[in-house]
Amino acid sequence: MEEKREKRFKEVIRKRQPHLTVILENVHDQHNIGAVLRTCDSVGIMEIFILQSKKDFNVTNVTLGQRTSAGARKWVDVHLYNNTEACFKHIRKKYDKVFATHLDADAVSLHKLDLTESVALLFGNEHDGVSEEALKQCDGNFIIPQAGFVQSLNISVACAVTLYEAYRQRNTKGFYTKNPPLTQQQQQELFLDYKNRHDNRIKNKHIEAKG
Q1: Which of the residue ranges 69-83, 116-130, 189-203 would you say has the lowest mean pLDDT?
Q2: Where would I find the H helices in the chain?
């Protein structure tokens, strides 16, 4: 790996946010999934969860919108689930709170959430929103403040708005500068992982070129 590339890797890794993640439930539009994945990478998220609990949708069909993800799939781990309970069991092992975008009497404004804590953010289906089964797994609901007649946003836009509020809060606390969440050892381990992904990608390209 070239020195310039190695430096870039280390800069990105230092800003990774291990205590922030996104859950997409029954989101069928592959372009939306790809766009979310790209936004997740841009704010330093290391992994996301894709839950497809509807029987008419096979989780293995997820292709993550190749164009809209723009390579982010290589750096953001994607966990695919068909079972809601199993998905949240995994999430609860790593994240302290789960908040869903869901409008009800107890929903609070996005700007009132503390997104500097260990948190998973749940976004539902483009038409039906978050399922009742998934809502039971959450610690609370939030809404994105809006001033227009149409009180809804495209799923990828809603996710981007939410994640950049998280970015703002975390940046204020220095999570992207002087107080990185990952220890030096964790950063080194992640560097070796990313370097291996990079090397394998180059190797596979060479094999494909020869083939």
Answers
A1: 69-83
A2: 3-14, 30-42, 66-69, 84-94, 132-135, 155-172, 184-210
**Architecture of the domain defined by 17-180:** 3-Layer(aba) Sandwich (3.40)
For the entire predicted model, the pTM comes to 0.89
Question: Closest Cα to residue 113, out of 130, 123, 103, 99?
Answer: 99
Question: C-alpha distances in angstroms, 83 versus 42, 93, 119, 132?
Answer: 28, 16, 20, 14
Per DSSP, the residues of 18-65 read TTEEEEEES---HHHHHHHHHHHHHTTB-EEEEE--STTS-GGG----
* Contact partners, residue 146, CB within 8 Å, separation at least 6: 153
What is the distance between the alpha carbons of residues 139 and 188, in angstroms, rounded to a whole number? Answer: 33
Whole-angstrom Cα distance, residue 14 to residue 186?
9
Q: What's the pLDDT tens digit per position in 144-194?
A: 998 888 777 899 999 999 999 999 999 999 999 999 999 999 999 999 999
pLDDT of residue 200: 81
Geometric angle at alpha carbon 45, from 43 and 49, rounded to 5°: 135
CA 71, CA 40: separation in Å to the nearest integer? 12
Q: Angle 26-197-168 (CA atoms, 0-180°, nearest 5)? A: 60
Q: What is the pLDDT of residues 81-115, one digit of tens each?
A: 999 999 999 999 999 999 999 878 789 999 999 99
